[in-house]
Specification:
Chain lengths: 269, 87
């Protein structure tokens, strides 16, 4: 069927194909030779390119909700301190909250070993050439984990502020870790990630006296991209600010009371 | 398969040129081998939650004429295969 007139067979076309009928830009002469003779059959799809990922993410979300597991997707550039933050978080909860970790990296299981040493169950997902986790990788890893009821699942994504923003894993929220040894303009340089995240953790604040990082500017830029983003400052190394982060997690646990003013549904419930 | 037509929003974090390049590689050895990719780019559009005005966006954030930055995205996040043409 012709996309323009709906005819079911080839015939002499008197309409032009550069009339904004959806043939897009970038038509150089000689590129569109398919238009010069009879049309093929057009199959309408209207399928989201990431539709399969989104479908699997919803299955993950339903599975996690069913077990009353709060899942957080930790994203950042490499070296912002995600693994150190997880180690500190695991030690701070000290078994009071069952906690499991999925560790995404291109290669090695070094991070999973660090997490196990800190006292939590961990599964390493190696993405090989891949630069992000997707919902299917998480689904397969979840099958190998024995998750407790009412527990916390931390998914440490591949260090990358670009691609992970596009992939829903079935998490409750994305948490972006930004360290003060990076530029304070990261939020507008990588706007998709900061827009997709519910919380920004400003890490390594113990180093603030030694770097030219403007916290106020960083927060302002993050809110330019995402007016609703929450911000907590902490140091995974010294533990400063850690309590507020632990409270943030506790407030989102399936049995937690909703905090006054928190308009978001406790959707891990 | 002769043509694959996709919609890519300007706010979708996908570069049309990179998609074209990847398509050329990915189509080899599949029924899409030899097919062309036609990309329709959808401009970004948002409504200001402060004053209700609509504005166009060419990046994933912006400021309304009234100064508001809390924007509801109306268009530009599309990333879909609209249709394909087969022989």
């Amino acid at each position: 069927m012709c996309a323009t007139c709906g005819c079911g067979h080839s015939h002499a076309h008197d309409h032009s194909h550069d009339d904004g009928d959806g043939h897009g830009d970038g038509h150089s002469p000689g590129h569109g030779d398919g238009h010069s003779h009879g049309h093929g059959r057009v199959i309408e799809l209207e399928q989201a390119i990431l539709g399969e990922n989104d479908r699997l993410a919803e299955l993950n979300r339903a599975f996690l909700r069913g077990r009353r597991v709060l899942a957080l997707n930790l994203v950042s550039s490499p070296g912002a301190g995600k693994t150190s933050l997880l180690e500190r978080t695991i030690r701070a909860f000290d078994g009071a909250l069952p906690l499991a970790v999925l560790e995404g990296d291109q290669a090695t299981d070094r991070d999973a070993e660090r997490i196990r040493a800190a006292g939590a169950d961990a599964r390493q997902i190696n993405t090989g050439a891949g630069c992000h986790l997707d919902a299917d990788m998480v689904r397969r890893a979840l099958e190998t984990l024995d998750l407790s009821e009412r527990s916390l699942l931390m998914i440490e994504n591949v260090g990358n502020l670009v691609c992970p923003a596009l992939f829903d894993l079935g998490e409750h929220a994305k948490v972006v870790v930004c360290s003060v040894t990076e530029g304070d303009d990261k939020p507008i340089k990588y706007p998709h990630m900061f827009r997709a995240s519910r919380l920004m953790l400003l890490n390594k604040i113990d180093l603030l006296p030694h770097v030219d990082f403007d916290v106020e500017r960083c927060v302002e830029l993050a809110r330019t991209v995402n007016p609703e983003i929450e911000v907590l400052e902490l140091s995974a190394r010294t533990g400063e600010g850690l309590d507020a982060w632990l409270d943030w997690i506790r407030a989102r646990l399936p049995d937690a009371e909703r905090r006054p003013g928190d308009s978001r549904p406790a959707d891990a419930r | 398969m002769r043509v694959v037509r996709v919609d890519v929003g300007r706010l979708a974090a996908v570069l049309p040129d990179a998609l074209r390049f990847a398509f050329e590689l990915a189509r080899e050895g599949t029924p899409a081998e030899g097919a062309s990719l036609e990309i329709r780019e959808i401009p970004g559009e948002a409504r200001c939650r402060a004053c209700g005005a609509t504005l166009s966006l060419d990046r994933p954030y912006g400021t309304c004429a009234c100064g508001g930055t809390d924007l509801e995205w109306l268009a530009g996040e599309e990333l879909l295969i609209r249709e394909m043409e087969v022989v």
